Amino acid sequence: MISEHSSSIPASSGPIILIGAGNMGGALLTGWLKNGVPGSSVVVVDPNPSEAMRQTIADAGASHLTGVPVGITAGVLFVAVKPQVMDAVLPPFKAILDAETVVVSIAAGKTIASLEKNLGPAATVRAMPNTPAMVGRGVTGAFANARVSERQRQLVQNLLKVSGPVEWVPEEADIDSVTAVSGSGPAYVFYLVECMAEAGRKLGLQADLAMRLARETVAGAGELLHQSPDDASRLRQNVTSPGGTTAAALGVLMAEDGMQPLFDAALEAARKRAQELAG
Ligand SMILES: NC(=O)C1=CN([C@@H]2O[C@H](COP(=O)(O)OP(=O)(O)OC[C@H]3O[C@@H](n4cnc5c(N)ncnc54)[C@H](OP(=O)(O)O)[C@@H]3O)[C@@H](O)[C@H]2O)C=CC1
Ligand SMILES: O=C(O)[C@@H]1CCC=N1
């Protein structure tokens, strides 16, 4: 159970059961532990976590199980397994829910209706974090169904915000769009680094130098975006001298057949895939 004394995390009515301690589940667990959630209030269910995760769990005094806990009721059931295995994994967990439990799923696409098919009607939040959560710099979109009380919403908000800001959306369908923008978004940025490095190599730079330049440029631009009060458009304009080199490059990227139509198509594809994973 999380006590009122845990820094910013309000009390839950029972332990947090985390199903799946992979990339995202592990990142959230690490964030909870750093932000005052006592390890003793967390039960991690994962048949085969990494050695590093086993160590984290053990060091925190959290419990590790390979299957459904027996004899306890979940305060929060936090679902962080792949959407494709959820229908096989979830049904036995129905036994550890009661009227006070809030279910949180971070799985792409999986609808609340699909979760309820496996778990029965429950206070449920669909959330979509992203991998910068691993360094406490993520952003999460979240939707709560009508069964979620104000207390549960606060509790979930505090559990999610250990990895960065939380943006609540008014419609469940919005979560699929959030997934397309920020859930998958870090991959687009990493690919941008790859593209910049490859283009630099084609201009004659050593491949590893081009990669270092591209990587530090994107990391530095991200940090500037994070720290500056200016919006992205203003920051772009600050780089762009009239008649200069940046304007020449942006003439290509911002052409009618430049990046915007590519991003429109890419994000539409991501949202469509989320919708296909719904069932
Ligand atoms: N990666 C990302 O950028 C994001 C992912 N998500 C969502 O988060 C969820 C998890 O993704 P991610 O962390 O990347 O995936 P991972 O594969 O890294 O993590 C899933 C974990 O669940 C474990 N697992 C498998 N079967 C079970 C089971 N029966 N009971 C308990 N645990 C089990 C896996 O073990 P094993 O490896 O041994 O199979 C693994 O440790 C997905 O639903 C995804 O859509 C959301 C936002 C961003
Ligand atoms: O690719 C995926 O399906 C997951 C969800 C968002 C990021 N990774």
From TrEMBL:
Domain Pyrroline-5-carboxylate reductase catalytic N-terminal: 16-109
GO biological process: L-proline biosynthetic process
Keyword hit for Manganese: no
Keywords: Amino-acid biosynthesis, Cytoplasm, NADP, Oxidoreductase, Proline biosynthesis
Top enzyme category: oxidoreductase
Gene3D superfamilies recorded: NAD(P)-binding Rossmann-like Domain, ProC C-terminal domain-like
One function term, GO molecular function aspect: pyrroline-5-carboxylate reductase activity
EC number: 1.5.1.2
Domain Pyrroline-5-carboxylate reductase dimerisation per the UniProt entry, residue ranges: 172-277
Pathway the protein contributes to: Amino-acid biosynthesis; L-proline biosynthesis; L-proline from L-glutamate 5-semialdehyde: step 1/1
Main localization category: cytoplasm
Binding positions (NADP(+)): 19-24, 80-83
The keyword Aminoacyl-tRNA synthetase appears for this protein: no
GO cellular component: cytoplasm
Subcellular location: Cytoplasm
NCBIfam families in alphabetical order: proC
HAMAP family in UniProt: P5C_reductase (MF_01925)
Family the UniProt entry places it in: Belongs to the pyrroline-5-carboxylate reductase family.
Protein role: Catalyzes the reduction of 1-pyrroline-5-carboxylate (PCA) to L-proline.
Full protein name: Pyrroline-5-carboxylate reductase
Species the sequence originates in: Rhizobium lusitanum
